[in-house]
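Lab meeting, item 3. Inverse folding demo.
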């Protein structure tokens, strides 16, 4: 798909993957609606990507708030008339062993990482279905496909997203609307401000990548209108080991850490 003049909504656009995706989409001529909670970095980015020319719009949004997400959709549709692509990317992680982890952190991650995506999809999907055209991109994680130590609650939220996106893929067959599920490995972004580097198990280095690689893969998925799963970097061998020989996978984790 040619991105020129396409209308793309990105949640979590002020930093990390979302910012890199926004920059690439703007460079390809797309019109952008940028959402995140903090207005200042969002306005700055929108300014850089064409706010004055009406090509980028910052809409401060907490995806944990139903009212905010409804306002985001209403604002985007009012300004541009329709939305071609939703990149549901906003999310965060808090890492701790489950015995020590705070259930409040799980509640917050479920509300932002899972319900936040569900809210966003619900806000934009009806119009896409009416138009029989659109693309929903869901940002999960490698932690949505495998389990390692210290990431249990985050992993639970990202596994839930995998279920949500896979279901969307089934339900959207034949509707003209598509769904891509992105599952990146570890990448250095603002994400580690909350998750902390010290809790990452060593095995996560095996499928680490850069935010540039994730953004490139996401934009490629948008251009191709991918209806399926995208792993960044390529680590299918690891998910296959996890699915086919879970005991062996755990043994590897014990050895590697
Ligand atoms: N970095 C990694 O290793 C990695 C790996 C796999 C998957 N992921 C996933 O990729 C996505 C993006 O993460 P990132 O690495 O780019 O992290 P990041 O640099 O911290 O960016 C997160 C973005 O989400 C926004 N955000 C957080 N909570 C929000 C909320 N309640 N409502 C709206 N926006 C919110 C943040 O802005 P505000 O704080 O201003 O709201 C920021 O723009 C997340 O879903 C994360 O789980 C990350």
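The presenter then showed the designed sequence:
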């Amino acid at each position: 798909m040619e991105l020129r003049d396409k209308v793309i909504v990105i949640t979590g656009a002020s930093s990390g993957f979302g910012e890199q995706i926004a920059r690439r989409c703007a460079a390809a001529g797309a019109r952008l609606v940028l959402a995140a909670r903090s207005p200042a970095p969002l306005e700055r980015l929108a300014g850089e990507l064409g706010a004055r020319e009406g090509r980028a719009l910052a809409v401060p949004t907490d995806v944990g708030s139903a009212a905010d997400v409804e306002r985001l959709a209403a604002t985007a549709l009012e300004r541009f008339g329709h939305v071609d692509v939703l990149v549901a990317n906003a999310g965060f992680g808090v890492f701790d062993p489950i015995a020590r982890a705070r259930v409040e952190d799980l509640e917050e991650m479920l509300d932002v990482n899972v319900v936040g995506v569900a809210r966003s999809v619900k806000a934009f999907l009806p119009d896409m279905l009416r138009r029989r055209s659109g693309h929903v991109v869901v940002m999960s994680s490698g932690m949505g496909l495998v389990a390692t130590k210290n990431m249990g609650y985050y992993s639970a939220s990202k596994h839930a997203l995998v279920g949500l996106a896979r279901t969307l893929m089934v339900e959207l067959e034949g509707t003209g609307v598509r769904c891509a599920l992105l599952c990146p490995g570890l990448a250095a972004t603002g994400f580690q401000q909350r998750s902390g580097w010290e809790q990452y198990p060593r095995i996560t280095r095996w499928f680490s990548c850069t935010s540039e690689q994730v953004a490139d893969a996401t934009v490629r998925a948008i251009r191709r209108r991918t209806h399926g799963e995208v792993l960044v970097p390529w680590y299918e061998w690891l998910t296959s080991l996890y699915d086919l020989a879970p005991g062996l996978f755990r043994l590897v984790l014990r050895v590697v850490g």
